[in-house]
Amino acid sequence: MKYLLLTYALLISQCACANNKTTAKSEKGSDTVKVVAPPPAPLFTDIIPQPLSIVKGEGRFTIDERTAILHDKELAQAADYLRLYLPIERTSGSSNNAIQLALDKTLGKEEYSLKIDKKGVAIRGGDYGGVFNAIQSLLQLLPHAVYSKSAQLPMEVSYIEVKDAPQYHYRGFLLDVARTFQPVHEVKRVLDYMAFCKMNKLHLHLIDNPAWRIEIKKYPQLAQEGGFRGGDSRLHPIYGRFNQRYGGFYTQDELRDIVAYAAQRNIEVIPEIDMPGHSKALGAIMPEILCNYTPKTSHTNGIDTRNVWCVAKENNYAIIEDIVKELVTIFPSEYLHIGGDEVSFSQWKQCPDCQRLMAQKGLSGGEQLEQHFLNRVSKILEKYNRKAVVWDEAVDGGLLPKTTMVTGWRGVKQCLSTTAKGYPTIIMPASVFYLDKRQSTHERGHLSSKGVSLRTICDFSFENAGFTAEQRKNIAGIEAAFWSEIYLANINPRGHFSDYLEYMIFPRIFGVAEVAWSKERRSYDVMYSLLKENFYRKLHCMSATFRLESPTIKVEKGKIFASTSDGSQIYYKDIRTNKTQEYKVPLNADMAPFVTLHSRLMTGYSNSVGTPSFYLSRTPEVAITSSMPFSKNRSAERCATYKTAAYTTRCAKAGDWVEFRFTSPLECSYLKVATGYAHLHRCLIYKGHVEVCYDGESFVKAGNLSNGAYELRPKKRAIHALRIVATGISDAENKVIIQPLVIK
Ligand code: ACM
Ligand code: ZN
């Protein structure tokens, strides 16, 4: 009986956070009620990323209150980490009922062995990282509930022997905290997710055009003013949140706390100060770093949008050294990332000092001037015993030393080039490893021609990408990136800050982790089965949002049929009513232009998808006029014929308007008017409203713009015209983008 109760308790603990109701059944038809043993709890033998070797044993070890964690003295932090998940208090006891953590100098860097048998759990690692990696594998083999951090003992785990070592020692994740500030607890959450996948480098993108996020004691105004935009702050709003002061920065002590938290999780934090471009916020706070000319600002309402450090100002290198001096007291990492991407050379062309420097040094153009700048910054790093990492375009001119580490982001082609030139390269082409990119065609996220899906990542191979054995020797590792332009506008209004970020990370990060770690990798199909059978539940127990595959939809015999293969519940939303309902029976096919379907399972949800007709707009004849001039290439006519968005040649100010006038009064059930990029809340009119003309003469206000857009449901009233009216200046850009109307 004791055995039965024990097994039952285990089963409950497996499912405790999976919302599976499990009740003991009683057998009917007998006087005494017998408790029937539930089937044994499923045990897990799959680990992501795929280990080098797994040998499964027969039997299970039970971790209970008599089990001790025994460890070498250097591994106290690893034992503390394990106790965050397993409520084990014993620190001494028999080695026959223990989880033992030990260093083994016969193993390599980050290599480990994990053996579970009747004596308990024996973990050996070549170093702290090896032991930590083994702990991650152990956690994945335990019941899912372990990830809730409140699971009770006892817990069972299968006998198994795992031998494992990473393919690459650089398994990185870039978190862009510059465009969307993410508080310390959110950064720590990302570190937890990285640890779960055995990723070991957090590339923290701390500054960019929108903000400066790191306290520099010598220049306190950088973070105190450069960390905030909008409202009464000095910086004009961009990206998604416009009508209030927003942002934040990290104090040096907060960053030290992040570094320590990461180190316990075998993660090194590599900060990035992106230079010489991407420095608009810095330039707004310290204009003395910019080039020596007065910019034209008539099309940006007087806002100086210069974003490049002047190369010729000697004092700039003193400022950089001051910053580096403080950075090295926070980040013990061997490398510091100094940027070097997407530099606009036009500012140096207009600067007499930069032109003079180029002539003096015999530099051929912007590319070489950039390398001159980055070489000087690298020299400053050397003085502080640090090496530089740069983005791949920074080594195009070939002047940077071959010890410079390169992050290859633009494409596979550029990674092939830098590895061929002999630069140690972190492979992260945007088309495969940028997790801010959308995962399918009609989905939130950065534009991407085919989408970056888990399948894209699983299908990536160094051989197919064309790396020779020689080039592969220069691959330092892999990095995924989460750029956060779109994050700010997608923060879940229910208040779970991580929702969008998690949706973009999971499950794609599993694919990235395998590319970085595993010599033998799983195919997409095997990985997807594993998610459905096992890992979705682990994510649910962590309360992490994850992306499900979207429902499959087909229209047949006058009906819309939707299905999923993961057991999720499907819902449909009708844009005419803005209502979402459970999908229970096939929908009538005449709803196809108006409905999207999505599904939900545990903490996962899918993208909303429609049939092809949903993505089509009606195209009634319309004329577009505006108080702002339009560009020649992106004209109002092209927008009025529903081909592309129109671009104005300056940003908007209060009183500016854009009018859409229909040739014949239009009856429709839904109309969307939108400004800004379709995927990104930028170059939009954020402060304004929409007015509608129903009688051919007067306009009535319909409602305020939200993120530059407005959805109108006119309820059978014919529309003669509508107008967007700006009531404040738009974002700090030199244009407003007007999207073609969407009409149903
Ligand atoms: C980058 O995406 N500009 C590195
Ligand atoms: Zn200059």
* Shape annotation: globular
Mean pLDDT equals 92
Which blocks of ≥5 consecutive residues have pLDDT under 50? 1-15, 18-31
Number of domains: 4
Question: Please, could you describe this protein's structure?
Answer:
The chain is an alpha/beta fold. Helix content is 26%, strand content 24%. It has four domains: 154 residues, 2-Layer Sandwich (Chitobiase, domain 2), CATH 3.30.379; 348 residues, TIM Barrel (Alpha-Beta Barrel), CATH 3.20.20; 61 residues, Immunoglobulin-like; 122 residues, Sandwich (Jelly Rolls), CATH 2.60.120.260. The strands form nine sheets. An eight-stranded parallel barrel has the order 7-8-13-14-15-16-17-18, surrounded by six helices. The chain has a six-stranded mixed sheet with strand order 1-6-4-5-3-2, covered by helices on one side. Helix 4 runs parallel beside helix 6. Bound molecules: acetamide and zinc ion (ZN).
List keywords for this structure.
744 residues; alpha/beta; Chitobiase, domain 2; TIM Barrel; Immunoglobulin-like; eight-stranded parallel β-barrel; six-stranded mixed sheet; 26% helix; 24% strand; disordered N terminus; binds acetamide; binds zinc ion
Summarize the structure.
With 744 residues, the protein is an alpha/beta fold. 26% of the residues lie in helices and 24% in strands.
